[in-house]
Amino acid sequence: MCGKCFDWPLVRKALYKWCSPFTIYLLSAGEPRKYDPTFKGPIHSRGCTDIACCVLFIVAILAYVAVGILAWSQGDPRKVIYPTDSRGQFCGHAGIPLVMCVAKCPDKFMTLVKARLIPSEFEYYKQFCKEGVTNQMSVPDILKGGLCPAMLTPSKSFTRRCFPALAGKDGSITVGNSSGFDDGTGTIREAKDLVDGVKNATVVMEARQVVMKVFEDYTHSWYWILLGLVIAMLTSLLFIVLLRFLAGIMVWVMIVMVILVIGYGIFHCYMEYAALKGAAGSNVTLQDLGFQTDITVYLQIRQTWLAFMIILAIVEVVIILILIFLRKRILIAIALIKEASRAIGHVMSSLFYPLFTFLLLAMVIAYWAVTAVFLSTSNEPVYKVFNETECMHSRMNCEPANFSTSAMKADCQDSECLFAFYGGETAYHKYLIGLQFYNVFLFFWCANFVTALGQMTLAGAFSSYYWAFVKPDDMPAFPVFAALGRSLRYHTGTLAFGSLILSIVQIIRVLLEYIDHKLKGAHNKCTRFLLCCLKCCFWCLEKFVKFLNRNAYIMVAIYGKNFCTSAKDAFFLLMRNMIRVAVLDKVTDFLLFLGKLLIVGIVGIFAFFFFSGRVKAFEDTAPHLHYYWVPILTVVVGSYLIAHGFFSVYAMCVDTLFLCFCEDLERNDGSAERPYLMSSTLHDILWEDKEPPESQGAEEEGDPPPSEAQI
């Protein structure tokens, strides 16, 4: 049968001439599936697979729960929210008196020497001092005891901490509306001297202002964002339903609409680029502008719109060229989408399964985030001895509760037991970094397990459709629930095995990124090059493992074998059908990707005109925002995730039908004894380009025709 599709003598000659021995082995490796009259598809009897990995996964989950309980018992998130004073007490927390903390930040310049001379100012000054400061105490005694700061600087509150109130005025830096201040010794210093001390804090404060504005924008536009996401969901669902009945028309509509939407994006960028011609400051380059926390600033320069226009033009040209070169295969891919639509029509509940996957992933992410916060705040306050004069106990650990009566205080009269940092010397604190690593690794493992469960469940549901002799009579009443039950009952170990391999690769990538971050200041080009190569190799490895896992889960859903056997069978099956994989399966994925882009583009354009106020009809309806790009980006990202969830069902259906088709060809021959279980439509789809036997060239002498098992 294969001789009807390819001139095998020429193919073999080309293989041996141009391909490596390893490639030839891959294309011919693996024994084709033999006919098994007892095989009934995914509903046949099966047993548990990869039991050892199942037990390992259960133990790991139990240990993960134990780590969470331990972290929750030791951690204290208040350490992240509230600052602490020199005694380790939380400031601004209910039940904690403001003894070492201040109720508000100082708002004027003042030195202790000058404040001590004026009773009213000294009363104001004392609120920034420790308890016990009286009017009878001299300035040297106060400073010697560390009871008050030597000076006060106008400050602003940020995360319950006081930072100098720096600002800009007429090109100079000011603090408290003044360009200079008295440092307490009678010397007038410039405000710019404070910049280095609060440089990082100033960046954080600017970022905080942006975050507050973004949060405020969300509070004013959340219902419109929710409406946009609902529209994206309804649009995605409408596309899926229309694909069910009008697959051919809808695919061409998607192709044309994507080209038009991107074309409009190019036109809009050009109009914005032309409108800014001659505008003040519009010719500033992105490099000169630098990083700005207000993103709308970038939209006021021409170079931004020029960059957008070039990027969209490149995307447009690439898509058009791909469509031109694959125009014949697109027709076959459309027919394959039609067949997938029929399968989804019999398994409509599969469209809502991504919601279950999303719920499980949300639980995994929430557990990881909460555990990480508690682990990072589970250190204990460490107190050390601080003193002005020489002391044998200096910087040693101490207990503030009984320090006044301790031997340390007796030996060093001027010493104090003050809070130093958060840490600990117990076994728990020594292995805290290991617990954090375990938390991250189990996060990857659980997230990949949930994703794998979704893939195997959908594969089991769609393969039950394919292998049903009479469709849909021979299908289970609830295919998705039946496939989910089989996956959890028999193949939890297989899911854990595949997700474990992927998690190991991902955690290695995380470690490489961490090392790269630490070596950013290094100038060793060889090390940087080696690290870059490793990152690239493991990125490719992760993509390959994901591809292999996906197809292995399909084979497990069909045959119920273990992970290694299924991965091997899926790999060699795809290698024996490499041409079909390249020109059919991947073309279909490309068309579905265009569908996602179309939904994102349509919803994104409407969101842009609504939130930016470009349409007069919506000026009074749209909320007034600091940054209109905040809800737009949220709607665009959310729309893509929603569209991806719906179209991923289609992609999984196509991949499952494709593998089942290849298995069906190797398992059966279309005779009455071994009939194909594929539909006649699917048979015509994947043999669309066959030619009649008499049109094929004669076989060369010495080259026997291939057997049916070579298909």
Automatic annotation (TrEMBL):
<dbReference type="GO" id="GO:0015297">
    <property type="term" value="F:antiporter activity"/>
</dbReference>
<comment type="function">
    <text>Choline transporter.</text>
</comment>
<feature type="transmembrane region" description="Helical">
    <location>
        <begin position="351"/>
        <end position="375"/>
    </location>
</feature>
<feature type="transmembrane region" description="Helical">
    <location>
        <begin position="222"/>
        <end position="243"/>
    </location>
</feature>
<dbReference type="Pfam" id="PF04515">
    <property type="entry name" value="Choline_transpo"/>
</dbReference>
<feature type="transmembrane region" description="Helical">
    <location>
        <begin position="590"/>
        <end position="613"/>
    </location>
</feature>
<feature type="transmembrane region" description="Helical">
    <location>
        <begin position="440"/>
        <end position="468"/>
    </location>
</feature>
<keyword id="KW-1000">Mitochondrion outer membrane</keyword>
<keyword id="KW-0813">Transport</keyword>
<keyword id="KW-0472">Membrane</keyword>
<feature type="region of interest" description="Disordered">
    <location>
        <begin position="690"/>
        <end position="711"/>
    </location>
</feature>
<feature type="transmembrane region" description="Helical">
    <location>
        <begin position="49"/>
        <end position="72"/>
    </location>
</feature>
<dbReference type="GO" id="GO:0005741">
    <property type="term" value="C:mitochondrial outer membrane"/>
</dbReference>
<feature type="transmembrane region" description="Helical">
    <location>
        <begin position="249"/>
        <end position="267"/>
    </location>
</feature>
<feature type="transmembrane region" description="Helical">
    <location>
        <begin position="625"/>
        <end position="643"/>
    </location>
</feature>
<dbReference type="InterPro" id="IPR007603">
    <property type="entry name" value="Choline_transptr-like"/>
</dbReference>
<keyword id="KW-0050">Antiport</keyword>
<keyword id="KW-0812">Transmembrane</keyword>
<keyword id="KW-1003">Cell membrane</keyword>
<keyword id="KW-0597">Phosphoprotein</keyword>
<feature type="transmembrane region" description="Helical">
    <location>
        <begin position="488"/>
        <end position="512"/>
    </location>
</feature>
<feature type="transmembrane region" description="Helical">
    <location>
        <begin position="305"/>
        <end position="326"/>
    </location>
</feature>
<dbReference type="GO" id="GO:0005886">
    <property type="term" value="C:plasma membrane"/>
</dbReference>
<keyword id="KW-1133">Transmembrane helix</keyword>
<protein>
    <recommendedName>
        <fullName>Choline transporter-like protein</fullName>
    </recommendedName>
</protein>
<keyword id="KW-0496">Mitochondrion</keyword>
<keyword id="KW-0325">Glycoprotein</keyword>
<comment type="similarity">
    <text>Belongs to the CTL (choline transporter-like) family.</text>
</comment>
